[in-house]
Every structure is written in structure tokens, then in C-alpha cells.
Design brief:
By secondary structure, this protein is α/β, with parallel strands linked by helices. Helix content is about 40%, strand content about 15%. Strands 1, 2, 3, 8 and 9 form a five-stranded parallel β-sheet that branches. A four-stranded mixed β-sheet has the order 4-5-7-6, with helices on one face. The structure holds zinc ion. Zinc ion binds near residues 17, 21 and 95.
């Protein structure tokens, strides 16, 4: 199924970073302190998702599934996510920046993190979401990252290489964020982001969907969901549980407005909410 599926579909991801991700923040101001919010907001989030009957995929930093206390660990909450019907995917072992990892370290990271998560929930983990949405570099789709090359050297990992390693370590789905050069040029000319309903791609044997709705649940995400309901295709929406208690586009209020609209479109049979694990045989 390479075209746009009809009715349109939404895939909702949560990047569950915990304090492991906060410690490795690359925003330029060093480690952050939002780790505890990942857990407290997830409690409220699970209740809200249940109320709107929307399933999602939590991309979990695997170290958080090891025994221990918040803000670094909570295997019980990860099991609760699984038992509530949400998919548990992998977000690397410690929220690692993948373009800089050597092939053997990357393979070990992917293998070990899947084992840790599967041991925690007692079910297969097939979906991978790369931390920081990187690598962006994917020449086969005309996506080039000068910054990844500058930081990690000429032999740095690209998105195709990541998919090859994911295949060899037992994954079946990966979320991508590469942006082809023609799209970037168009965005520069129009001075706004340009996106369209997504299609499933198969890269090195891995099913892939690219982000196309920005980060969070404000206008860009809602417009993409509405457009997919009209035209078919995938809206790929994501946010961070720890950001739900902030005032921006990832807030609980923005999320609730999106969920209410999704519920209505689902009721009208114009939209389906799907999880990545349902998409691995559909390419
Ligand atoms: Zn993350």
C-alpha cells in the first residue's frame, strides 16, 4: 500500500524521554530538570487518552524500564502504558545522539534497549523513534545534514544506515524526520513549513513514516489531521509528556482540543487512529 490510505489516518507518538533525556538536552543550555514531569503528566495523559478512546505509541528511553526510582526509572508506569493498550516503542537506551555512534555501539544500543523494554512489558517491541529525530541525513531522499557531518565526521550515520541496523536488530518500524531539499527550498521561498499527508515507505526492510505535523497539537497538527481526513494519508503527530504542563503547543489544552476533533472525525468514519505496529505488514 504505497499510496494514501482512505480514510485518512493519524499516528500519535509520545517521546517518553524521562530524566535521561533531560540530562542530555541539546538545546544549548545544558541539562534540564523536567524529568519528574514525564511521569506525573503521563498519569493524567493516560486518563485523557482513555476518555477520548485514542491509542498511541510511547517511544520509551529503555533505561527508564530498568528497576529504580523516578525521575530516571518507572517500569511500573511503562507496564501501565502497555496494559492500557498503547504501543511501547523504543527511544534508544539513554536518549543517545545516534549520528555520532560507531556501528558496533549503535547495534549494541538498539539490541540492548529492545531487550530491556521487552523484559519490562513481556511483549514484542518493534517500533523505533530516534532521539532528537536524528539522523536527518538521508541522501536517497535528497536530505542532507551539514550539521551532522560537521559534528560526527564524514562517516556519520544516516537514516538509511539506521534502518539497516534496525532491521538487523529485529525492529520493523521507524519514525523519520528527514526533509528533502526541494521541500526545504519551497519552505525558504514561502517562509512557512510545507507538508502533505504522509505515505508509508519501506527503507532497508523497515516501514517508515515521516513527521509532517510539527511538534505538538496546535494549528499545524490539527490542520494536517483535517487534511488527511479529507484527502487520505497519514498525519504523524507527536509530543512529549513532560511538555503537557507547559503553555505551548504541547499543552494539555491543545492536546484535548485535538483529541476532541479526532474523536469527531473517527465517529464520522473520516479518520482512523492507528499504531505503528499495525503498519509493518502494510507496505
Ligand atoms: Zn526524545
Amino acid at each position: 500500500m504505497r499510496g494514501r490510505p482512505r480514510p485518512g489516518r493519524m499516528v500519535l507518538f509520545w517521546d517518553y524521554d524521562t530524566q535521561w533525556g533531560a540530562d542530555r538536552s541539546r538545546s544549548g543550555e545544558g541539562p534540564k530538570a523536567w524529568g519528574p514531569e514525564e511521569f506525573t503528566n503521563t498519569e493524567r495523559l493516560l486518563t485523557m487518552l482513555e476518555r477520548y478512546r485514542v491509542v498511541s505509541c510511547f517511544a520509551v528511553v529503555a533505561a527508564a524500564a530498568k528497576p529504580g526510582a523516578r525521575p530516571y526509572h518507572d517500569p511500573e508506569q511503562i507496564r501501565a502504558i502497555h496494559h492500557a493498550g498503547h504501543e511501547v516503542g523504543c527511544h534508544s537506551l539513554h536518549h543517545d545522539w545516534l549520528p555520532g555512534l560507531a556501528p558496533d555501539r549503535l547495534r549494541e544500543n538498539l539490541r540492548r534497549s529492545r531487550e530491556v523494554l521487552e523484559a519490562c512489558i513481556g511483549a514484542p517491541v518493534e517500533t523505533f523513534v530516534p532521539p532528537y529525530n536524528q539522523p536527518f541525513h538521508y541522501p536517497a531522499a535528497l536530505s542532507f545534514s551539514q550539521s551532522e557531518r560537521a559534528e560526527a565526521g564524514p562517516d556519520h550515520l544516516g537514516f538509511g544506515g539506521l534502518c539497516r541496523e534496525l532491521k538487523s536488530t529485529g525492529y520493523r518500524f521507524c519514525r523519520g524526520a528527514y526533509r528533502p531539499l526541494p521541500q526545504r527550498v519551497m519552505e525558504r521561498v514561502l517562509r512557512r513549513s510545507v507538508d502533505w499527508p504522509g505515505t508509508l515507505k519501506r527503507i532497508a526492510g523497515i516501514s517508515c513514516l515521516r513527521l509532517n505535523a510539527g511538534c505538538g497539537f496546535s494549528d499545524a497538527a490539527r490542520q494536517m489531521v483535517r487534511r488527511c481526513a479529507r484527502e487520505g494519508g497519514y498525519a504523524v503527530v507527536y509530543g512529549h509528556p513532560h511538555s503537557l504542563s507547559t503553555a505551548g503547543p504541547q499543552s494539555f489544552a491543545c492536546l484535548e482540543a485535538l483529541l476532541a476533533e479526532v474523536r469527531e472525525l473517527v465517529g464520522q468514519q473520516k479518520l482512523q487512529v492507528v499504531q505503528p505496529r499495525e503498519l509493518v505488514n502494510h507496505v
